[in-house]
Design brief:
Structural class: mainly alpha
Number of strands: 2
Radius of gyration: 18 Å
Shape: globular
Strand order of the largest sheet: 1-2
Membrane topology: Multi-pass membrane protein
Oligomer: single chain
Keywords: Cell membrane, Cobalamin biosynthesis, Cobalt, Cobalt transport, Ion transport, Membrane, Transmembrane, Transmembrane helix, Transport
Pfam family, one: CbiM
Helix content: over 70%
InterPro entries: CbiM, CbiM/NikMN
Function: Part of the energy-coupling factor (ECF) transporter complex CbiMNOQ involved in cobalt import.
Order of helices and strands: HHHEEHHHHHH
Length: about 250
């Protein structure tokens, strides 16, 4: 592994992170469901749904780092990539905001269970430092971005690699699908919590999904392209670590 190249890239990621910490506004109307927005019952429900994935993810990460401690650098890179991309909030034409998620890369490298831990830690820091999301809604936000997105992206990656073996296409689709699935699940979460007076949950789902789709589809495509570029960089400078990760996830292990 070329440590100089790795740390130069890590410094770039850290620089972007520091920039957004300094320039992020105190409040945020973004994809993450804000503090106190969900009814208590739904907030508790999504916490309960998320925690089993988090527990399994912690066990998976402990095993990975115990067997191969050198993988900790790639874990940090996956976390930094997710933090920076998901902090890039962009105004949408609907008056809300939208952003990439960055979880597709980690799902491809590590599998979806480790990303349930990494993604939730990212969301916790964003809630505390950037007022982006919240603590009561952390379970809901983590389920959509750290569970549903990575699992969907990982499934698409494994399927495409099995069907045609085109790695770059598989990585692109994994990142894009992980991004889009996050917003699909968020739309469902908001729809079931706030059904429309006329049309119920379905009408509300169409409304929220339509709002997110305007900005999120092009963002998902952009995230897919960026993830492929980073994947190529990792293959050039960290082939040994990626090979270790590939062996650990071989055979469909999560």
């Amino acid at each position: 592994m070329n440590k100089r190249k790795f740390w130069s890239f890590a410094a770039l990621i850290a620089g972007f992170t520091f920039y957004f910490l300094l320039n992020e506004p105190g409040t945020a109307n973004a994809m993450h469901i804000m503090e106190g927005f969900l009814p208590v019952g739904w907030a508790v429900f999504w916490w309960v749904a998320f925690l089993p994935f988090f527990t399994l993810g912690v066990l998976k990460l402990k095993k990975m780092t115990k067997d191969n401690p050198e993988l900790k650098l790639l874990l940090g890179l996956a976390g930094a990539f997710t933090f920076v991309l998901s902090a890039l909030k962009m105004p949408s034409v609907t008056g809300s905001s939208s952003h990439p998620t960055g979880t597709g890369l980690g799902a491809v490298m590590l599998g979806p269970l480790p990303m349930s831990v990494i993604g939730s830690v990212v969301l916790l820091f964003q809630a505390l430092l950037l007022a982006h999301g919240g603590i009561t809604t952390l379970g809901a936000n983590a389920f959509s971005m750290a569970v549903a997105g990575p699992f969907a992206g990982y499934a698409v990656y494994k399927l495409l690699m099995k069907v045609n073996g085109r790695e770059k296409l598989a990585v692109f689709m994994a990142a894009a699908v992980a991004d889009l699935m996050t917003y699909v699940v968020t739309s469902v979460q908001l729809a079931v919590a706030f059904p429309a007076a006329d049309g119920g949950v379905l009408a509300s789902l169409i409304k929220f999904g339509g709002i997110f789709a305007v900005t999120q589809i092009p963002l998902a495509i952009s995230e897919g392209l960026l993830t492929v570029l980073l994947w190529n960089w990792l293959k050039s400078y960290n082939p040994n670590e990626l090979s270790l990760l590939k062996r650990q996830t071989k055979g469909g292990s999560l």
